[in-house]
Sequence to fold (457 residues):
Amino acid sequence: MKQAPLGQRLALLTDLYQLTMAACYFDQGMNDEATFSLFIRKYPDNRGYFVAAGLAEALEFLSTLHFTEEDLAYLESTGQFRTAFLDYLKDLRFTGEVYALPEGSIFFKDEPLLEVSAPVIEAQLVETFIINAVSLQTLIASKAVRSVEAAQGRPIVDFSLRRTQGSDAGLKVARASYLAGFTGTSNVLAGKLYGIPTFGTMAHSYVTSFHEEIDSFRVFAENFPKSTTLLIDTYDNVVGAQKAAEVGKEMEARGERLSAVRLDSGDIAAISKKVRRVLDDEGLDYVKILASGGFDEFKITDVLNAGGLVDSFAVGTKMGVSADAPYFDIAYKLVKYAGHPVMKLSTGKVTLVDKKQIWRRFDDKGLMQGDTIALREEALPEGVPLLQKVMENGTPLEPQPTLEDSRDYFRRQYDQLPEPYKAFENPPEYPVRLSQKLDERETRVEEELHHRELGES
Fold:
């Protein structure tokens, strides 16, 4: 059965105040063009950059937004909305434009990931979904790349599904981590939906269900001879490695090869050296060592710095929930309405006015040198504009890149980021400045607000 379009299924996936504000706009005949900017206000501890992700989902939602009869019947049943407003929602579609960073872009605090311009009712109603869709995948991609960096070229697989916050999050984590350079995922549905390579081994419950550990290894090898990875720490890593080596020799006799053994507990650096010795002594130097169990960029770094002989890593919970930075201070704020730039003056939450563009400068080696946030209409003499027009009149201008293309784009972006900003702890702050014209407009609007709203001269 074909699934209904995303925007039709999820039109009510919003906060109530989006609808109550929209009803007020409607009541007052306020529906001039509004521009909202999506940005992250500050870095979490030990972070110095972000990876943009989730754009395709946001655009799909916008291009298919539609309140069904069931949606409207529910809203009517709440007794909060007038019939005229519900009749208006019946025919509402998103008709605006979107400028956005391409999927996989490196960006920095205060820089807009995307800007939405549309009649204010439309632009307001889509806020919650856009933040939800973009925030999670950006959060995970920004965390996942750190494990990729720590692994120094070793393959990494996403093992987080069982502990992500919900099934949808599990899918998005698999997608975002693959975008950021993971080799694949254990999530079979993500493999089907996104074309991500899938990987799996076995659980301790599988091993303990057999009378003898080696029997569990033999049965698995017989059933999956092309991808046999044996979990060897159920009772003892070294003894498990010896049994795995025995099975590996049996596989050789059948013209097959043991792919890997998996370590999941203990001092991984020390154990991996012992296991490597067992395998090599049996002539199984081709068998890889996969490590799992509480890994993220910090634990990967510790294991490798201690001389761990690990060939690949399975990274789960700490990446899947971005344990050290489980949320971003991300905001979707009105920056222009009815032709006039607007801003808020709340302490610590002042916004950058008007429609914007980001210009990036590079040094003579092609590395990022600094960004300038400018007015949309500005053309700066140096640098490259980053925000691209991706939607017009409610319709995507062209198909979004494939996940593989976005993954390649991210890698090129990441290679342009100077090494100091990739540090896992206390990275320097990348230089982002305002153009003179944006700064002047910001100052003018702020002065006008102080005069009009606060009565200051």
Summary: Residues 164 and 321 are 6 Å apart (CA to CA). The chain has a mean pLDDT of 96.
